[in-house]
Amino acid sequence: MKFLLVFDFDHTIVDENSDTWIVKCAPEKKLPNGLRNSYQRGHWTEYMGKVFVYLGDNGVEEEEMKRTMTTIPFTVGMVDLLGFIGKNKELFDCIIVSDSNTVFINWILKAADLHKVFDEVFTNPAAFSSTGYLTVQNFHAHHCAKCPKNLCKRKVLKEFLDKQLERGVSYTQIVYIGDGGNDLCPVMFLKKDDIAMARQGYTLEKKISQLAQDHSPVECSVLVWSSAVDIMTYLKLLIKE
Q: In whole angstroms, what is the distance from residue 137 CA to residue 8 CA?
């Protein structure tokens, strides 16, 4: 009996968007209009690449970025929740699937000593170049029309489950915890015994209720959460059963 917990990162584990939080490092803590307006829908990673070039051009170095990123607040109750999962690792496998990047997520989790809770992190690969600029790449290529160009979370989840099956690992239930529009695609992949935990008032919850109104509800059960306390309450019930 093992459960798979799948976490989004921005507005789920942390209570902000890590990609917009880094703007605190920019001169006057904001980006020039030309750069801000250059974002094209579905091409967020390319946009962030330009943001990192701008920061590098303005002399923002790795140490300052790291200092800024590790001040990002965790969602209420999240540190306790991850501590609880860490103490019950024999029952839970735990992964992150996020449109952030490896550098930000590693910094934030390691600073809070929470990185060991997660078995794998699937996110856009990032690294500092020899000139000290942060660079980011698309996570993968895919053919899903619903998802941004760089990441289809359904594809990540499906490939992870296939790989686990090859290792002889299958799950009693998948619990998917997220907030955003790009979490809908993997949620629609979940089966009836699985649970989607959608953050209250955010895009994922709205999209799921829209589907229900259109008489094409998702197959899995849906629970709405407003703090990680709600998630912990559910997980405690789950392991009592």
A: 18
- Annotated active-site residue 15? The verdict is no
pLDDT digit string, tens, across residues 114-127: 999 999 999 999 99
Q: Decide the pairing of beta strands 195-199 and 221-225.
A: parallel
From 10, 183, 194, 230, active-site residue: 10
148: left (phi over 0), alpha (psi -120 to 50) or beta: beta
Active site residue 8: yes
In a domain, 218, yes or no: yes
Burial of 30 (0-12, 13-18, 19+ CB in 10 A): exposed
User: Tokens in use for 211?
Assistant: 């589907």
Domain count, the chain: 1
The reply to whether 86 falls in a domain is yes
Annotated binding residues for substrate, as ranges?
19, 99
